[in-house]
Amino acid sequence: MFITVNCPDCSDETEHEIISESRDTLVRCTVCGHHQRIQKEREPDSRMIKTIVSREGTSKVCSIELAGDDECTVGDHLVAECGDDAFGVEVTSIESGEKRVERAKAVDITALWSRAIEQVVVKISIHDGRKTIPVYMECDGEQPFVVGEKYVVSGKRFAISHLKLRDGPLMRKEGWKTVGHKVKRIYGVRG
């Protein structure tokens, strides 16, 4: 096996043949034949962090593996492991000791709070002129929704009039779009 490292005799990065591996790695330069020992790169310490995953009204205790020096931020998209299942989640809150923080190193995290984003249930309010009909649609978290476009859900045809996002803004301008996992509610008019 070969690796590229700096050779002190050649004063350049050259290809080296790996002679032996133990605590250090013994290599030989393929250009000049110089032997040297290089330190093996340490695998970063990883840790499993307790993660509460919410999915439309139910919560489950899972875990997320992070390297000890990784930094996690609210809004990060990570993969949670729940037994044999693994799925995408969005971090909604970080617990570090006794307080909630927006960002923390993995070694300082007590628990992560998250929500599943691969499959989501989107809440839709369809107004038909006299009354508003609530509808729920299960969809892929990356499914696009566009203001002004027509959709059919549960046999009801409607055009999106505006989109309410989870992080606050209301999207009203025709052509503006987002994806399912960012939607708090879709408002539409029958038609």
Residues in helix, %: under 10%
Biggest sheet statistics: 6 strands, mixed
Number of E strands = 20
Radius of gyration: 26 Å
Rounded to the nearest angstrom, the distance between the terminal CA atoms is 66 Å
The number of helical runs is 0
Strand content: over 45%
Number of domains: 3
H-E string:
EEEEEEEEEEEEEEEEEEEE
Structural class call reads: mainly beta
Outline type: elongated
* Average pLDDT taken over every residue: 89
Residue ranges: pLDDT <50 for 5 or more in a row?
none
Oligomer: single chain
Summarize the structure.
With 191 residues, this protein is an all-beta fold. The protein has strands at residues 2-7, 12-21, 24-29, 35-39, 46-55, 58-67, 71-73, 77-82, 85-96, 99-101, 103-105, 111-116, 119-127, 132-140, 144-146, 150-153, 156-165, 170-171, 177-179, 183-190. It has three domains: 2-39; 46-116, no CATH class; 119-190.
Q: Can you characterise this structure?
A:
The protein has three domains: 2-39; 46-116, no CATH class; 119-190. The chain has no helices and 20 strands. It has strands at residues 2-7, 12-21, 24-29, 35-39, 46-55, 58-67, 71-73, 77-82, 85-96, 99-101, 103-105, 111-116, 119-127, 132-140, 144-146, 150-153, 156-165, 170-171, 177-179, 183-190. The strands form five sheets. Strands 5, 6, 8, 9, 10 and 12 form a six-stranded mixed beta sheet that branches. Strands 13, 14, 16, 17, 18 and 20 form a six-stranded mixed beta sheet that branches.
